[in-house]
Amino acid sequence: MRKYKKLYTLFVLFGILFAVIACNLPFKIVPNFTPTPAIEVSDTLLPSTITQNPIETILVTKTPHDQALVLDTSPTIGSVLMWMDFSNFVFIPPGEFNIGKGTGDQTDYSPLHQVKLDAFWIQQSEVTNLQYAQCVADGRCSAPIQDPEVPFWFANPFDGNHPVVELSWFQARDYCSYIHARLPTEAEWEAAARGSEGKLNPWGGDKPNCSYMNFNGCLEPPKPQAILSYTYGRSDFFVYDLAGNVAEWVED
Known about the structure:
A hairpin with a 6-residue loop joins strand 3 (60-62) and strand 4 (69-71). 38% of the residues are buried. By secondary structure, the chain is of the alpha/beta class. 11% of the residues lie in helices and 13% in strands.
């Protein structure tokens, strides 16, 4: 995607370049599960501690029987997991979600319809330059594409907390695999953005402005903004930057 090209999304908003989308975790969610003695996780593929909200802790363990990863609690909206790359994952509950948009013209997002989704976890914000750099240093990811028309923010130490851009779909998938996750599906991404009520924008029906999101004209010169900068623009599931800032890849 070329520099600052307008990307008309479902929300008729602008994106800047491509970034790794927040990855999804492959958990089995087992309500009220009583785990058998945990098997020691000796490598760095899983976090050593995982926190939810201030009053609860989620324990991640493997069972001796099928080695499946399970959660010893029933998470709710607002539950947060800190993962191995020090990113936060938020919980999206199961349910039926409005996907697409009704329009008189045939488009890639019409018609408006409902999909039924199982519960899943998705990263609360976009993957940063610093997080992706660790994957590159470990030999599991290749460096972002250097577009001569775009500043190479990845190499700037002051942009470490900004979303990584200029990645191909394959590079995005490699990063998710590196942290033992996966790219979300288009339906999961849209559910995380629109919430249970199927809002037009992650924040609701108000027109986009620079308090809700980063889009053309908000920053001078135009560039990605640091993650978690737009509290007013987050979705009902506490996911940030699903409109504006940068565009994201999905599995399908």
